[in-house]
Every structure is written in C-alpha cells, then in structure tokens.
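User: For a reading group we're discussing how well predicted structures match intuition. Take Protein BPS1, chloroplastic. Before you show the prediction, I'll give you the sequence so everyone sees exactly what went in.
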Amino acid sequence: MSRAQDPPRGFFPFGNPFRMLSPKGSDLSPWLLSLLNNFELLLAERLKKLMPKSKSDILTLSWMKLAMESLCETHTNINTLITDLQLPVSDWEEKWVDVYLDVSVKLLDLCNAFSSELTRLNQGDLYLKCVLHSLQSGSGEKKYLQARSSLDSWRQHVNANNARIENCRAVLDSLVKSLSLPKVKNSDKGKVLMRAFYGVKVQTVYICSVFTAAWSDSTSDLFDLPVSDKPLWAKVFADVQSVVNGEIREMLSSGRSTILKELEAVDASVEKLYPMVQDGVDPVEVESLKELGTQAEKLSQGLDQLLEEVDSFFKMTLSGRDVLLCNLRSSDSFSGNAVGEI
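Assistant: Thanks. Here is the predicted 3D structure of Protein BPS1, chloroplastic, as structure tokens, for the group to look at:
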C-alpha cells in the first residue's frame, strides 16, 4: 500500500455550508422540531458508540464493522424520517432530488471500491494457507522454498495498490463539496429534511474517508470536517473525529507497514516466521506456525464480516435510489428530462 504524509486537509473554500441550518423566519412547529430532535439525538448516540474505549480499538476490523453498521442505521433512520414527515416525493424540490441522487451514486462507487479491497485482501489468505501447508506437511529443502515463495507472494499481494481505492479521494472530495446544502425556502418540512440529510452526509463522508485512509495508508484521504454547532450531534462528532484522526495520523507517522490492526498482526507473524523459513531451520517453531494460523484466521473472518456490512449498505443505498426513481417516474411534478438526465 502506498503512503503519503500530508498536512490536515481544510475544506469549504467555496462558501458557508451551514447557512441553511439557521433559517430565518418562522420557527418550526413542535411536531417538526420533535422529529428533527429525535433524529439528531439518535445520530448522536450512534456516533458516541464509535468513540473507541482505547486507542488500540481504532482501525480494527470490528470497529470498522461497527462504523458501517452505524451508517446503515442512520440511512434507515432518514428513510423513516421521510415517511414521518409525510412529504411525498412529488412535493420534493428538484434540487433536493438532485442532492439525494448525486450522493447515492457516489456512495455506490465507494461501496464497490471498498468491496474490491476487502475481497483483494482476503485473497491473500490463500498464500498464508500455502505457507502453513508447506511447512506442516512438506519435507526437506523443497518445503522451505515453497513456503518462502508463498510468503513473498503474500507480501507483494497485500502491499499492492488498488486503483479503485486511489479513486475514492476524488469521490470524497465531491461529496464534501455537496455538504453545502441547497437553501430551503417556504417549506418547514424541507428544512427538517435537508438538515437531517446534512447529518447523514457528514457521518457518511467521514466514515468513508477513514476507510479510505486505512487502505491507502495516506493522510491525504483523511478528512477534518468542520461542522455547524447547531445539530445535537455536533459535539459528539467533533470528539470522535479528533480522537480517531489523531491516532491514525500518529500511526501513519510511526512508519508502520500498515495501520489496519488485524493485517498488522498477520504481518508481524510473517516477519517472525520468515527468517526461520529463509534459513531452513528445522523444525520450524510450532508456536510461530500456530500464531500465523490464528492471526490469519482472525483477519479472514474480520474481512468477511466487514464485507457483509459493506454489501448491506450497498443494497440499502441502491434500493432507496430505485424507490425514489420509481416515484419520480410516476409523478407529474417532475419533467421527463429531469429524471432521464440523472
């Protein structure tokens, strides 16, 4: 994996993304305010669960799985909010639809990139199985040659660049720019919807940036998102972002070969075993083989579980997009061109 050390990224040179969060005019009704507060409080609780109990939890596959589960829950909540608002798609302004569809297609691109990287990393497990098979069942010099070849192949495989992950940066940059939400006029329900979308997008962009940084080993893919202090989740988000980003940058500056914890554990086992294989030490330490097998299994299981969550998020995003497009096609409020161009 490539690594580049870069300063923290600054954003929003194009204007104030928070202008719609302090709407002028009449206050929201108690009912709408309750819907918005409930949504934001749930988001705050969800973000709070992402605050690691210790720095060693950051960028473990279990933490990344929790983060992806959190995203799925948030996107489920926004669908529930849309239903509770009793705001049919036919009443949406075209710019709201554009925001939703533009974001959704970019999320699908990110999910495809993440799935490809998880699958690619998991394919490396085959090399480790070959190492264990060669050393446990082989004999003579041949088993060391085979094991050494498999270890070299594993190193090359896990350190290779993934073009799809490299392309995530451009996708994330465009999503950051879209955080400057459309200004809502004459629609209190629209104001609630757009403010809720803002929270969804902040959480989504940030978590996707952490995933991208984990696989690229580059701080240039790690975002520092400034957020308005108006939402009820703002303080929790700022705390989580500060802790997680700080630890990731520290890990990247330490010269570690990878910052994904389970992958790092396998790498450590490989480095311990490699000199024995290279020197043809016979017998190879049983504990070293056992350790490699255990760590490889943890990595493989963790990658499988995270891949399932990414796939679930992909299906949820695709389903929501399809439902919206179907509703648009059946609505007289939107022109055929508007739908066809998306």
